[in-house]
Amino acid sequence: MSTEPRPHPSNTHWQEGWHPHATRTPSPNFGPRPQGIAIDLAVVHSISLPPGQYGGNDIQRLFTNTLDWDAHPYFDLIRGAEVSAHFVVRRDGQLLQFVSVLDRAWHAGRSHWQGRDNCNDFSVGIELEGLEHTPFEVPQYETLARLLRDLAEAWPIAQTVGHEHIAPGRKQDPGKAFDWPLLASLTGWPAKRFPHSALLDSSS
Ligand SMILES: [Zn+2]
Known about the structure:
alpha/beta; binds zinc ion
């Protein structure tokens, strides 16, 4: 036998790119990744619908193309959007999954990171329920950190950054209130795996 069990006891049994403990809400908004590409970047976003209102189901509706665009004035501004993320972390830390990590979700848009464009090709998109520049909940960091570690068991996730870092000037999420040092601490990963500027800003 060429396969031998990996020794780590907390091995996550990913199922075709689906996390075993996430609530599955499959989105039709995805496509194939470029063949042979390494999934080596995690992108943190924030979203709430309507903005600043938590606990409803409108994020799920947006990502499954079932949002009632007439239900709120804000929705008219994003009418017809076909978007998705691989994961959403609710305010209480609940983990939802919309797209298999093996597939390409539509979260980053026009983006660029360290010499490469189209970050959707090689990244995992994780939305935290929240509002940019507004604090997130500790259970969200705990779920996010666990998810990142689970992802890194299966894919070569080298860095975790914010949408603001791969689309500067165009996007601001998750924003100034996101606690990068806390996330780094909870993952146990070194600072080089997170945006350098964010760690500097937060500690000054
Ligand atoms: Zn974003």
